[in-house]
Amino acid sequence: MKIVFIGGGNMATAMLGGLLQQGYAANDLYVVEPDAGKRAQLASEFGVTTLAADVPLPATDVAILAVKPQQLAEVARNQAGALAGRLVISIAAGIRMADLDRWLGGRARLVRVMPNTPALVRAGVSGAWLGPQADIADREVASRILQSVGQVVWVEQEQQIDAITAISGSGPAYVFHFMESLVAAARELGFDATTARQLAYGTFDGAIKLAMASDDEVGTLREKVTSKGGTTAAALARMNEAGVQAGIVAGAHAACARAAELADELGK
């Protein structure tokens, strides 16, 4: 299977590395990238064929649109003829399937994907939706590609991609914000920066590993740590007074609403 990436940014780079780790041949992977320095870097690091933006696309089975959302309409219109008949996977945030299909001339085999930044370390969670012209074989191909950088969750309705954006797409920033706050608390309690990071990062890493290994819900795991009248109970009570959980839930709803707004704006 031959794959061409249109755009050679961070997410495309992560997927290239993941595909090569899975055993894909470098000579089956192509990257279209306008920046000459970036092309040279990708060719040197991965051994793939890189192409300037003004040359014809190579014949491939799959095209992955990995350009910035603001650039996608122009790229899709310019490449509509060349992309006809291929499975097209879009990882551009906020672009609805109908708009992309319109830019491509209609009736394209499309998969819309919302990845997240942990894909850079092969620990991503991607939300994906299969377009109406694509079939189960296309879904399987897309799954294999996306699994090169982590997990994939398929949704049944396209609007659920906005919810994926709010949870896993934007979610790393929520986690980093909590980690940042825990580091700040450690510094206020007298630890130096290195020790504060070790304590906070290690706690997150261990808690995630415990949650992933346990059959218990996270609420149950929280309860097991929280002794009545103890230190954890005091901390959680104060956090509840400050509305921490409610704020996180409200933030996710705000992200979901903004994702829909951006899709309206970018699809014009």
How would you state the average pLDDT, rounded?
96
Shape: elongated
Helices and strands, in order, run as EHEHEEHEHEEHEHHHHHH
Helix content: 40-55%
Query: What would you say the CATH architecture of the largest domain is?
Result: 3-Layer(aba) Sandwich
Content of β-strand: 5-15%
Write the layout of secondary structure elements.
Elements: E1 3-6, H1 10-21, E2 29-32, H2 36-46, E3 49-51, E4 62-65, H3 69-83, E5 87-90, H4 97-103, E6 109-114, E7 124-130, H5 136-146, E8 150-154, H6 160-169, H7 171-188, H8 193-213, H9 218-225, H10 231-241, H11 244-266
Parallel strand pairs: 1-2, 1-4, 2-3, 4-5, 5-6, 7-8
Antiparallel strand pairs: 6-7
Helix pairs in contact: 6-11, 7-8
Question: Descriptors for this entry?
Answer:
55% helix; 2 domains; single chain; Rossmann fold; 8-stranded mixed sheet; alpha/beta; ProC C-terminal domain-like fold; elongated; 8 strands; 14% strand; 268 residues
Can you describe this structure?
The chain is α/β, with parallel strands linked by helices. The chain folds into two domains: 3-156, 3-Layer(aba) Sandwich (Rossmann fold); 171-262, ProC C-terminal domain-like (ProC C-terminal domain-like fold), CATH 1.10.3730. It contains eleven helices and eight strands. It has helices spanning 10-21, 36-46, 69-83, 97-103, 136-146, 160-169, 171-188, 193-213, 218-225, 231-241, 244-266; strands at residues 3-6, 29-32, 49-51, 62-65, 87-90, 109-114, 124-130, 150-154. It has an eight-stranded mixed sheet. Helix 2 (36-46) links the parallel strand 2 (29-32) and strand 3. Helix 7 (171-188) crosses helix 8. The protein starts with a strand and ends with a helix. The mean pLDDT is 96.
